[in-house]
Write a structure and sequence with these properties.
The structure holds 2 protein chains of 2 kinds.
Chain A (H helix, E strand, L loop, with lengths): L1 H14 L12 H7 L3 E2 L6 E2 L2 H5 L3 H4 L1 H13 L3 H4 L21 H10 L14 H14 L26 H5 L6
Antiparallel strand pairs in A: 1-2
Helix pairs in contact in A: 5-8, 7-8
Chain B lengths: L1 H16 L13 H33 L12 H32 L8 E8 L2 E6 L8 E4 L1 E5 L3 E8 L4 E4 L6 E4 L5 E6 L4 E7 L11 E7 L1 H12 L8 H12 L2 H4 L23 E2 L4 E2 L2 H9 L1 H4 L12 H13 L2
Parallel strand pairs in B: 1-5, 4-10
Antiparallel strand pairs in B: 1-2, 2-3, 5-8, 6-7, 6-9, 9-10, 11-12
Helix pairs in contact in B: 2-3, 5-9, 7-9
The chains are: A mainly alpha, B alpha+beta.
Chain lengths: ~180, ~325
């Protein structure tokens, strides 16, 4: 019994040393493949490229990616129109109401190619990897269920519950929304 | 035996070599650094003497251990005198060292009049350097390289953009932290012209070790010339490949993060590249600035400095060639 304990405990302790993988360098061919999304003709929803699933969908589940997305959200002034998720001249994300669907492929396409009524295309301003990171982060703002990974904390005062405290929809559901 | 001696000798020589050079607190070339160095030596020498005396007394005590009690001067009076003298000496020495440290610390912040003001902001993992001037059109931004005139007081205003960093040029001054949400300052005067290396001295993430900068102390006339050149907008491309490189820079993601004054590129997330070709190093002391190193950096920043915020922007061979030619031409 004691021998068993002495083998199990160190194994458990060693398991605690495992750290989340940070993929700092995306191979250029993989980055290229990640840009090959298949979008529905109406621009709403679609399938992410195979490379996305092959990588293990890191942009929605990896805390480092989400953290980078959160930084890009500020750096590229998404806040200028969408505020801290609450919306201003651009639509809100926090209410969980996605004009082009909650799919990450749609969010990716919205950032990369722009949308009517003012959303600019960031194709020439961000790399494919950065757009995925940003899309993954934005999805957490209006997520229906709390994600297991969270980005880094806010440096300034929190204007809303933190990103891993979804669901957004349940929090702000209003009867007049379809 | 001789071999061991030789080895010891050569390792000692190696250690001593660390005392000189362009980054050493023991080879001071600036005003607070010289004061600090004197203070360090004062403390080391006094503590060394005290340590040696304690060892001598201890050795004497051990030496007398075997002798019969009657032959030792163990009277109560002797003991009291010895202990009182030791306590008095300790108080005097510690008071003296405290005063010396106080005097040196006070001298670290001299009067501000006439100082050259440089604002340094630390980011993961580079330094944004802004030369301040009463006339706004004489204020300009550069990165990872400070030029200062010899003999003039320099006041460095320190702030941080993300996490805590620390500004440290051991040859010229002490250390001062850059803390988000606070402003700190550090003043120094370079006494000898030269190139001094500085380094972030507060662990700030993956590439903390690659967060260096250089301080170039030069004669006032050449400093003014440098300042005027830096204040100017970027040179117009002279050759065809440079002109094409400028177009690549403006049409790709480069311009979203970097500024080149005199062009529409006005991003503020990365270093100002207006005169990047004229700086000694790129990526905060990582590589010497050459057209080749610029191209290598643009191609694969995450292999050269993993974790930094520069993404690999997909470029074809011609675009890479042109954009590196353009950046290298920005003297």
């Amino acid at each position: 019994m004691r021998a068993l304990l002495f083998t199990i405990l160190p194994t458990l302790l060693a398991a605690g040393c495992q750290r989340e993988e940070r993929d700092l360098r995306l191979d250029p061919p993989v980055a290229d493949a990640l840009g090959q999304i298949a979008l529905m003709p109406n621009g709403i929803g679609g399938t992410p490229p195979e490379a996305y699933a092959a990588l293990g969908k890191p942009y929605t589940s990896n805390a480092y990616s989400l953290g980078q997305g959160k930084r890009l959200y500020t750096w590229f002034n998404c806040k200028g129109c969408h505020a801290d998720g609450g919306g201003a001249s651009g639509p809100a994300f926090l209410d969980g109401w996605w004009q082009y669907g909650p799919d990450i492929t749609s969010i990716f396409a919205s950032i990369r190619d722009g949308r009517p009524n003012g959303m600019p295309a960031f194709r020439d301003r961000l790399t494919t990897e950065q757009i995925w990171q940003l899309a993954g982060y934005i999805q957490t703002i209006g997520a229906y269920s709390g994600p297991t990974a969270a980005p880094s904390r806010n440096d300034e005062m929190q204007s809303r519950p933190s990103e891993n405290r979804a669901p957004a929809a349940g929090r702000t559901e209003s009867p007049d929304r379809p | 035996m001789t071999r061991a001696l030789k080895n010891a000798g050569s390792s000692l020589l190696l250690l001593c070599a660390g005392c000189a050079g362009w980054q050493s607190a023991l080879d001071p070339q600036g005003i607070p650094a010289a004061d600090l160095s004197r203070l360090i030596w004062l403390v080391i020498i006094i503590c060394g003497i005290v340590w040696a005396l304690v060892l001598v007394v201890l050795a004497a005590a051990l030496w007398q251990r075997g002798r019969p009690l009657s032959s030792r001067p163990t009277s109560e009076r002797h003991m009291t005198i010895a202990v009182s003298l030791a306590v008095a000496a300790t108080v005097v020495i510690i008071t003296f060292l405290t005063l010396a440290s106080y005097v040196v610390t006070r001298r670290l912040t001299p009067a501000r009049e006439g100082a050259l003001v440089i604002r340094v902001r630390g980011y993961q993992w580079w330094w944004e350097v802004t030369y301040m001037d009463a006339r706004p059109n004489r204020t300009f931004v550069t990165a990872n390289e400070l030029h200062v005139p010899v003999g003039r007081l320099v006041r460095v205003e320190l702030a941080a953009g993300d996490v805590i960093h620390s500004f440290w040029v051991p040859s010229l001054a002490g250390k001062q932290d850059l803390i988000p949400g606070r402003s700190n300052e550090l003043t120094f005067t370079a006494r000898t012209a030269g190139v001094y290396r500085g380094q972030c001295a507060e662990f700030c993430g993956l590439q903390h070790a690659h967060m260096a900068f250089i301080v170039i102390a030069e004669e006032p006339a050449s400093f003014e010339a440098w300042r005027n050149a830096q204040n100017a907008e970027a040179a117009a491309p002279a050759r065809d490949d440079e002109a094409a490189g400028r177009e690549v820079f403006l049409s790709k993601a480069c311009a979203a993060c970097h500024t080149i004054r005199g062009t529409p590129a006005s991003g503020t997330l990365g270093p100002d590249l207006t005169h990047v070709g004229g700086r000694n190093t790129i990526a905060a002391g990582l590589l010497e600035t050459t057209r080749g190193s610029l191209a290598a950096w643009i191609t694969d920043p995450q292999t050269l400095k993993p974790g930094n915020n520069m993404p690999a922007v997909p470029l074809n061979a011609k675009e890479l060639n042109d954009v590196s030619a353009y950046l290298a031409s920005l003297k």
